Amino acid sequence: MPFAAIQLPRDPASAEPLSLTPLHLRAIADRSTIARAAIACEKIAGPVLLVSAGDDALWPSELLSELAMERMQTRGHRFPHVHLRNPGAGHLFGIPNGPVTTRSLVQPLARVHIAFGGSAAADARACRDSWRATLAFLTEHVPPRRAGR
Questions:
Q1: For 67-109, what is each residue's pLDDT tens digit?
Q2: Range of the domain at 56
Q3: In sequence order, what are the beta bridge partners of 107?
Q4: Count of domains for the chain
Q5: Residue 112 and residue 14: Cα distance in Å, rounded?
């Protein structure tokens, strides 16, 4: 499967967490890279909800979600597709009342100190808001399965 490769710094061991987002942005600066690595999301046979973080330091989730939305729009994706942005949130937010204080960690295989971005307050808000929006989206667009199916 094609992808946009990033180049980690030669000396990844650092006390300062590394934001990988600028590396991803550099990798996709050439539109031909985006074209080669793009996921054919317009072929998804159902509704799509994309959830992104406005201060995602791991990868540019907001930008890439927007590119996916544009692709679905211009290529005629016939199902509902929604992009939920979470301003100020970092990469690590999940379900409500989950942990929201991790700002970075050392990736054990690459031994790189990776930043996730965001703040505890923004991540907690993103957990709450995205969970509610996800449940509402599923309730509206995904019919319940019948027993025996």
A1: 999 999 999 999 999 999 999 999 999 888 888 899 999 888 8
A2: 21-141
A3: 112
A4: 1
A5: 7
